[in-house]
Amino acid sequence: MAWSTRASRTVYENRWIHVREDDVTGPHGDGIYGVVRMQHPAVFVIALDDRERVCLVELDRYTTGRSIEVPAGGSDGEDPLVAAQRELLEEAGITASTWHHLGRMNALNGIADAPEDVFLARDLTITDATASQHEEGIDAVRWVPFAGALDLIADGEITDGETIAALAFAGIRLGRFR
């Protein structure tokens, strides 16, 4: 049985998210479903340098605390590639001359409408981004071999689901998982 929406109402909205409550009929009958919709798709960047190291950023998330992630952020309505280029520069002080779109994914698709685009950035140039990193809440930028990033996942140091998925996209594209 397919889902059907009988009624829908906005319960909260700001510039980043829209939360609605739907009266639905689903496989188990009638109910209420809460849905969080991101106002703009997000982007995630796997920046790989000429030594095959991945750029990771460390920051403190209000919701989960310390987090190690790939550079990422909201598209703010921009083209996803433009947003990825902006986020990589703001968060890590990096520009790239080669970009590949690795794929699209959905975050928390059981409760959210949150599309995300994943990019691979190569041929990197590192600049000074101290001011924008502070503004973005970035505590540190670190470079680890691709296999080292996978080890950080296995060891439970990288717990951000989107970072894990973005690294999987890159591993598939690059033909390596260790």
TrEMBL record:
It comes from Microbacterium enclense. The keyword Ribosomal protein does not apply. InterPro entries: NUDIX_hydrolase-like_dom_sf (IPR015797), NUDIX_hydrolase_dom (IPR000086). Transmembrane segments: none annotated. Keywords: Hydrolase. GO terms for molecular function: hydrolase activity. Pfam families: NUDIX. This is 8-oxo-dGTP pyrophosphatase MutT, NUDIX family. Its cofactor is Mg(2+). One of its GO terms (biological process) is nucleoside phosphate metabolic process. Residues 38-166 form the Nudix hydrolase domain. GO terms for cellular component: cytosol. The keyword Metal-binding does not apply.
